[in-house]
């Protein structure tokens, strides 16, 4: 019925028409009213009387406001879940990044120890030493030993080369380390765990930034302040941008008698 369609549109004019829950509420209300009107008309009511009675039974605008309020509560709950996930991710990646920095320092000392051991044993290099120093060290991808005492400083051919099978690792996560004395020169290609930690941190920050921005936009929408200036402020400044908005709104509310 046209009168029902017009009434439903008027009921939910304050709700977001593009939101899926708004569409569902409209359709459910429309079906409910049409069925009620049909039943009342079968009981002898005129179409106008049946419409008025169906609206009264439904609860009118007061009921619609309750439904819209419930929908907004659900939206805010969802937004708060997004914020919680974002903050947790930020905390986790921050801890992981700090831990990886620590491991990187520990591994640097370990790699230096290996590099100098290999160099000092360059005249006695053998498979047993290779197994103990390289194969059991998962972060070393390639090792090259140059015996400068025998080959000279300008030798381009390594006296010994070890190569792991992890060459599929992106070059972004690799790093070269060099150790040497007058007697030897050792080059190690390693997996840079600090770069991996930083990469994970950037991903975590990005996820947090997006989730916080979505949360902030939902908050702006519900208080009727989804304006360009606050959107830009939120996108550029993130937490600081939302804090500026909150302080501005609090000041405005304080001025209201």
Describe it.
- It is a single chain.
- The chain is of the alpha+beta class and 257 residues long.
- 68% of the residues lie in helices and 10% in strands.
- The protein is built from nine helices and four strands.
- The protein has a four-stranded antiparallel sheet with strand order 2-1-4-3.
- A hairpin with a 4-residue loop joins strand 3 and strand 4.
- Helix 1 packs across helix 2 and helix 7 packs antiparallel against helix 8.
- The longest helix is centred in the middle third of the chain and has 61 residues.
- The chain is elongated and about 110 Å long.
Sum this structure up briefly.
The protein is an alpha+beta fold and 257 residues long.
N-to-C series of helices and strands: HHHHHEHEEEHHH
Query: What is the subunit organization of this protein?
Result: single chain
Task: Report strand order across the widest sheet.
Answer: 2-1-4-3
Helix content: 55-70%
Provide the residue-averaged pLDDT: 79
Helix/strand/pairing class, anyone? alpha+beta
Q: Roughly how many Å apart are the termini?
A: 46 Å
Question: Please, how many helices?
Answer: 9
Low-confidence stretches: none
Largest sheet: 4 strands, antiparallel
Q: What shape does the CA trace take?
A: elongated
CA radius of gyration is 34 Å
**How many DSSP-defined strands?**
4
What portion of the residues fall into strands of 2 or more residues?
5-15%
